[in-house]
Structure formats: structure tokens, C-alpha cells
Amino acid sequence: MRGAAAPSGSPQIRPTDWRALYRRVEGAQMAVERGFEATPEEKRQILRARAKMLAATGPDAAPTACLEVLVFSLADEHYGIETLYVREVYPLKDLTPLPCTPPFVLGILNVHGQIISLIDLKQFFGLPVKGLAEINRVIILSTDAMEFGVLADAIVGIQAIPLQDIQVALPTLTGMRPGYLRGVTPEQLVVLAAQKLLSDTDLVVREDIEI
After folding, report:
1. Domains of the chain by residue range
2. 53-71: per-residue pLDDT in tens?
């Protein structure tokens, strides 16, 4: 894994091209399905998210500044992370535990010949921890400076969230390291600050690893 360095500048959010977004949702869904065989429930959730987005984007709809996120579940709650930072979704397999690392570092994975460390956000945020299962997925986050995977209980799909709907994180979430939270939607979707996660040196595995 590469060393950490803060990305330069914040990404610009432009008015959404809904036709392009629809094509990107289709492409993202195909990319997710290439990485794993979705369960029937995951497929239903992806279709519901896509239908909800299309219902709000009729031909006469005015352009709206949106944030596109990959929605996933952790400890029975839904979280979103900006797709700009998502390289791919990968099935959890061949995990190698790594000694002498914090509890939230589950180990390392060989992904297409590249060694990727795996972070458990449930332990990092102090959420209820469940055992690993075959349905778990790895969301690989990436910038030019850093890459690592985060564990997801399940993938829900891609969602476009109007920026005006993202409110400051609720007080009840302050125990979850509030600096890593971008905000919460009216549907209680917790939007994570991907840029903060990817620039945090505490999440770097500094050893040279061979597997």
C-alpha cells in the first residue's frame, strides 16, 4: 500500500447530467457484479435505488448539484462513500491476518497481484462487530497517494444525493469519530468523508509485506 498524502483540493460538484448519471449507474452496477455474485436481496436493493433515482429525474427536471455515492451496510445501518474514490468492489477472500497492527486492520488481500490492506470501519468507529461471512464485500478506496480496502457487510447500490439533503452529522453520531463523517441524509444515510479517510496516516500499514 502506498503512503498517505492529502489529496490536493476538494472535488468540484457540478450540476448533474442525468442521462450520463443513468449510464454510470448501469456501468457501476455491472462493475460491482463482475466483482461478486450479488445475492437476490442485494440485486433488489440496487434496483430500488436505481428506480428511486430515475423517478426523481424526469425530462423536465432542473439540474441539481448532487453527490454520487456507493451505498453499503455496516452493523445494520446504511453508509455512503463518494464513488470518485471507489476503485472497485471485491469479494472477501484469501484474507491474511497481519500481526502487530491495530484491531481495525483485519489483514491484507492480494487483489489482481496487488497487496491491499483491509480496514474494518466497524471497529474503527466503535460499532457492533460481527464475524466475517461469505456475503462480506471489500470496497477498495483509492487516490494517487493511497489505496486500501474497507469491509462492508453488503453492497446496496449507487445513489445520487442532492447536496442540499446532506445535513451536519447528528449528535448521536459524534462517538463515531465525527471528523470522518460528511453528514446525514433525511433517510438516515450516513455519508462518510472519503477524502479524510484516505489522508489519515493512522490507517497506513507501514511494513513491507509479502504473501
Report:
1. 18-198
2. 555 555 555 556 899 999 9
This prediction's pTM: 0.68
d(Cα 31, Cα 23) in Å, to the nearest integer?
12
- Whether CATH 2.40.50.1020 fits 18-198: no
